[in-house]
Amino acid sequence: MKRNKNTAAGNPPAAKKRKSLNSLVYNNKVVMLISLVLAFGIWIWVAIEKSPVVEATISSVPVQINMENSVPAQLNLQTFGQTEFYVDVTVSGKRFIVSTIKPEDITVVAQTNYVNSAGTKSLQLKASVNNSKDFEITGLSQNYIDVYFDTYKEAEFAVTPRITAPNDQTVIDGCILGDVVFSQNTVVVSGPSTEVNKVTGVVAETTISAPLSATTTTQPEIKLQTEGNETLSNVQIDTGDTAITMTMPVLKKVVLPTTVTFKNAPAGYLNENVPVTVSPSQVEAAVPVEKINEITSISVGTVDFSELDAGYNVFNFKASDITEYTITNSKTRFKVTINMSGKTSATFTVPAENISISAQKDGFSSVVIPSSITNVRVVGTSDEIAALTNAMLYVELDLKDYDVQVGEQMVDANVVIKGNTKAWATGTYSVRISSVTAPAS
């Protein structure tokens, strides 16, 4: 009978297995590893199942004021002033969950359902959990916030100057302050209607340390005017893309002779004075100090030669219409007499080919409907008129500032005489034109 090899060797299988198991059980490293795994598992189980419930405060949770499709939005109400709010939220839950909570895990919403009019409203706050974390919200640091609601309004105001000077003297002795010039004359005030309605004006305020001796430009502070000087915290002032500048002209009083400006004068008068008399012959005016040596006379108005006839021509001008300079004495009107005695007149015809358009109206293309202008009255000396021919009479229409309409229309025209003559056409005449809209360039 044969014996098993293993048996013969004295190492039966069962005994070998027991020896291997014993070596594992009595191996300190293995036992330590198993103990650690078991301990960690027990710790996880205790942390999850047996963790104590705790409370904690989550700081600075933002408050949402959702105006989309809300009651105030349907009433055209908006929020003004402070619109960013934060509250502290008290939460309750198992410690391991509470320790991971952040402000973004909580949503706090201000309730706007009952806002139905303008004014400061107390909005109740409602908090909720916005993820799957298992915790409860038990309290807020405040349950209400005050928010200002109103409709939006814009209003345009003219800017007025306010200059603060030592002893209220803005310019040096012998000078006066001219009309202040702004780079932008108006501003737009916007904000809640209730506050915009309280604005009575807008001032540009600047302070000078000494009386001005020359025209000065500065950047003023733009301020709102209100009844009772009430401070408006929610109103904005729109001054455009650039800051407003304020120019303060310094003028000096001088006495200058008076004259008149002529328009459409014939070539013969360009180098010869027109016989004109202005009463009063001189006037006291305030002119910019920078131009004091350049100004030799004051023009009280403009006379077009087409308004002149043979004989004496009288015109009256108002001092208030003089915008280039400031008349400082009591004179309010000027009488201008132009002596064209010794002149005669005759009628001529402007040929159709001498009528043209010198400048088009933007957006239009116009042409003259060919037709001569008859019975044009020309004034001059007998010799000057005798030297004229119809071919010397022209009409050149400048339509840039004319009210051009599509189709045919009559436009006013002045007749000019070309050549070195003192004769001129008096009166206004009409030319028929046809216009279409010009294609965009």
Low-confidence stretches: none
Q: List the total number of helices.
A: 7
What's the story with the biggest beta sheet? 11 strands, mixed
Given the helix and strand composition, which structural class is it? mainly beta
Average pLDDT works out at: 89
Give an overview of the whole structure.
With about 450 residues, the chain is mainly β. Helix content is about 15%, strand content about 45%. It contains seven helices and 31 strands. It has helices at about 5-10, 15-25, 30-50, 70-75, 95-100, 195, 380-385, and strands at about 55-65, 75-80, 85-95, 105-110, 120-130, 135-140, 145-165, 175, 180, 185-190, 200-205, 215-220, 220-225, 235-240, 245-250, 250-265, 275-280, 280-290, 300-305, 310-320, 325, 335-340, 345-350, 355-360, 365-370, 375-380, 395-400, 405-415, 415, 425, 430-435. The strands form seven sheets. Strands 1, 2, 3, 4, 5, 6, 7, 10, 11, 13 and 14 form an eleven-stranded mixed sheet that branches. Strand 4 (about 105-110) and strand 5 form a beta hairpin. The longest helix is centred in the N-terminal third of the chain and has 22 residues, at about 30-50. It is elongated, with a radius of gyration of 47 Å. The mean pLDDT is about 90.
Characteristic terms for this protein:
46% strand, 7 helices, five-stranded mixed beta sheet, eleven-stranded mixed beta sheet, mainly beta, 441 residues
Describe, in short, the structure shown.
With 441 residues, the chain is mostly beta strands. It has helices spanning 5-9, 13-25, 28-49, 71-74, 95-98, 193-196, 382-386, and strands spanning 53-64, 77-80, 86-94, 106-110, 119-129, 136-140, 144-164, 175-177, 181-182, 186-192, 199-207, 216-218, 221-226, 236-238, 246-248, 250-263, 276-279, 282-288, 298-304, 311-318, 326-327, 333-340, 344-350, 355-359, 364-368, 373-380, 393-398, 407-413, 416-417, 424-425, 429-437. 13% of the residues lie in helices and 46% in strands.
